[in-house]
């Protein structure tokens, strides 16, 4: 399950929570997520979304800007 990383509020930004990439988190890496796949119910960074898109061509993950929806 994806977890929240350090809040960007603490870094001086407005009320934004960063989500960690689910795949990277499994191997103990803390990479900020840029995409979310509703079918997988997982978050992905830019590197991992490339592999995800190759494996699951019919799924359309949401970009970070759409995550609030």
From TrEMBL:
Residues 16-67 form the B box-type domain. Signal peptide: none annotated. The keyword Zinc-finger applies. It comes from the Eukaryota. One of its GO terms (molecular function) is zinc ion binding. PROSITE patterns: ZF_BBOX (PS50119). InterPro entries: CEBP_ZZ_sf (IPR038446), Znf_B-box (IPR000315). The keyword Kinase does not apply. Keywords: Metal-binding, Zinc, Zinc-finger. This is B box-type domain-containing protein.
């Amino acid at each position: 399950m994806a977890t929240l990383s350090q809040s960007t509020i603490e870094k001086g930004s407005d009320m934004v929570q960063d989500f960690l990439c689910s795949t990277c988190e499994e191997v103990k890496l803390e990479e900020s997520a840029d995409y979310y796949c509703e079918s997988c119910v997982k978050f992905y960074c830019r590197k991992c979304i490339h592999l995800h898109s190759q494996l699951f061509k019919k799924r359309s993950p949401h970009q970070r800007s759409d995550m609030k929806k």
